[in-house]
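Many introductory courses stop at the sequence. We go one step further.
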Amino acid sequence: MKLMATNLPRHVAIIMDGNGRWAKTRNLPRTSGHMEGIKRVEEIIDAASDMGIKALTLFTFSTENWQRPQREIAVLMQTLSEVLQKKVEKLNRKNIRFQLIGRREGIPSEVWKSISSTIEKTRRNTGMVLNMAFNYGSRLEIIDAVRSIVRAVEEGKLKVDHISETTMNQSLYTHGLPDPDLLIRTSGEQRISNFLLWQLSYAELYFTEKCWPDFDRMEFAKAIEEYQNRERRYGRVKEE
């Protein structure tokens, strides 16, 4: 597969869906699906970085996911902490900067320790930005952004008439990054699920029947190729 080097998405966002379904079809526990899904995370991070994509955002754990069975959550939290500790050196070798988007409140202390350590150890890297959307919900993100704007108005730092799209962009968790050009969702579901609602306004959407544990480097390349074959007009008339 030959990808065009000049028409890559700057920012790719992925809803990594289908770990549980992948496990169920194989008569395995849901946690086995998550373990296999972690392998794909590393593979896709490598693929995106090697392609020259500037930012990759992975929807890892939503604010709604805390309602899942406690044993499953415990396994996910422990695994996340261990993976971050083991892979930070590789992130540095590949010059990848790790960031978190989501609310700090509610994250278990041991997990937060691993997250904050990885953020600190990679903060000087200048290559691809890896955003982990963890304890994340887009509606809450927008509420947090509105609250910060209101505080700025109350403190006299901002006039109401000066509030703009730029103001909002700078108040979101993703401030400083371009909006996603491409959203990928695996497992056949075709919805956004409270993910980057503001930022996805003009993103191209790519849905695949593949469950996340089966979404390898080749499948990622297919999604990028599909993006490159689309025409993005942003409301303009198509040129003849």
